[in-house]
Write a structure and sequence with these properties.
The structure is a single chain. The protein contains twelve helices and 13 strands. It has 386 residues and is of the alpha/beta class. The strands form three sheets. It has an eight-stranded mixed beta sheet, sandwiched between helices. It has a three-stranded antiparallel beta sheet with strand order 10-13-12, with no helix packed on it. The radius of gyration is 21 Å and the shape is globular. The protein binds pyridoxal-5'-phosphate (PLP).
């Protein structure tokens, strides 16, 4: 059986269930909607989106996106506060290019998104990490670290964290923006999972916080529509937008992705984005229920995890002396894999964790994956004590 159809960029054996993968299943990619949205955009008399675009991003699209976000966030977002990107990875790279020099310090969470850590490493930045608990970044530790560090910016994933699946509490958000305002420290909030909440309440995104704190919020269509679009947005104050549009990259090439922006403009106007997000929430909620039930059944009691309230991930904790890297060889032999915790720490700590995701596989495969993983982990833990 081919469990891994539609994964052009990763070569996996067909019968491997890689529970670490954080991307949507191929059948959740909205091909038909995109076909209709593209036809809608291309049927217009005005093909200005085929010209070089405005530096800040396609004008129609920014207005439509601003209206959409105003509805989703229940808080006003203006098109003048949006800068169009090629997704959050590109936005992070761009922020490093604009606001850092090699050797600068950046504050990150531990754990943090492993490829963001790699982007920061590409820019030769010096990382200082702050632990994350059930309420997100531990602000007391941040205060302590800021006594000696003068970072170029602070990177946080406030909602439905990758990989820890936690959300920064309201109290900590207030403290964080207060501290950053006081220190004039640029706060980069990666809010890629903000709109994927599976419970009733979600906290307002950091992007809507109107404070004196220099704050950049990153949003992306990768998790709510399709990663191949390479489309996202920065939501920030006009003062910071002015800095974002300076680079010659934009003077030469124009704003990023004007064509795709127009197609997504149509997708939003035709109601596809809203209905797709609703569909994803139904599918992911059900997967979480089934996957977590099976994990509880098959993983030994020493494996502890919380049921995710949003996002893509389950962060499993094992006893302190476990190194999940040592499980991988045995796991791969049983055709199951995961992301070991140390991947999410720039210091290669957190060895006693693993990241699992329910985004890529459907219910049946997740259940089979949980069974395979449970057997491997139980064996490995028994051998350890045996
Ligand atoms: C926290 C976080 N930031 C950024 C990305 C990548 O986003 P994009 O596809 O918009 O570059 C991901 C994808 O897994 C992520 O989890």
């Amino acid at each position: 059986m081919d469990f891994n159809q539609g994964l052009p960029q990763i070569d996996l054996p067909t019968d491997m269930i890689h529970l670490g993968l954080g991307q949507p299943s191929s059948h959740l990619l909205p091909l038909n909607e995109m076909e209709k949205a593209a036809a809608h955009s291309l049927s217009t008399e005005n093909g200005s989106f085929l010209a070089y675009g405005k530096e800040q991003g396609n004008v129609n699209f920014r207005q439509t996106l601003a209206d959409f976000l105003t509805g989703e966030y229940s808080s006003p977002v203006g098109p003048e506060h949006l800068f169009i990107t090629n997704g959050n990875s590109q936005a992070l790279d761009y922020i490093c290019k604009l606001f850092t020099r090699p050797g600068d310090t950046v504050i990150v969470e531990e754990p943090s998104y492993f490829l963001a850590l790699k982007i920061f490493a590409d820019h030769k930045l010096n990382l200082v990490s702050i632990p994350v608990d059930d309420n997100g970044m531990v602000i007391e530790d941040l205060k302590e670290r800021l006594k000696s560090a003068t970072p170029a910016f602070l990177y946080t994933i406030p909602a439905y964290h990758n990989p820890a699946s936690v959300t920064l509490s309201l109290k900590r958000r207030e403290e964080l923006v207060r501290i950053c305002a006081q220190k004039n420290l640029l706060l980069v909030a990666d809010e890629v999972y903000q709109l994927l909440n599976y419970t009733q309440d979600s906290l307002p995104p950091m992007g809507t916080w109107n404070t004196g704190c220099p704050l950049i919020s990153l949003g992306s269509f990768s998790k709510i529509l399709a990663p191949g679009l390479r489309l996202g947005w920065i939501h920030t104050r006009v003062k910071l937008i002015k800095k974002l549009i300076i680079p010659a990259l934009l003077l030469s090439g124009g704003g990023l992705n004007p064509f795709t922006s127009e197609v997504i403009n149509s997708a939003i106007c035709l109601g596809f984005l809203k209905s797709h997000i609703q569909k994803l929430k139904i599918v992911y909620r059900q997967r979480i229920e089934i996957f977590c039930d099976h994990l509880r059944e098959y993983l030994p009691d020493q494996a502890v995890f919380k049921i995710p309230e949003g996002g893509y991930f389950i962060w499993v904790k094992f006893p302190d002396d476990v190194d999940t890297n040592t499980f991988r060889e045995a796991a791969r032999k049983q055709n199951v894999d995961f992301h070991p915790g140390s991947l999410f720490s720039h210091r290669k700590e957190l060895k006693n964790y693993m990241r699992l995701s329910f985004a890529f596989y459907d219910d049946k495969i997740l259940a089979e994956g949980a069974l395979r993983l449970g057997k491997v982990v139980s064996n490995q833990l028994t051998m350890r004590h045996g």
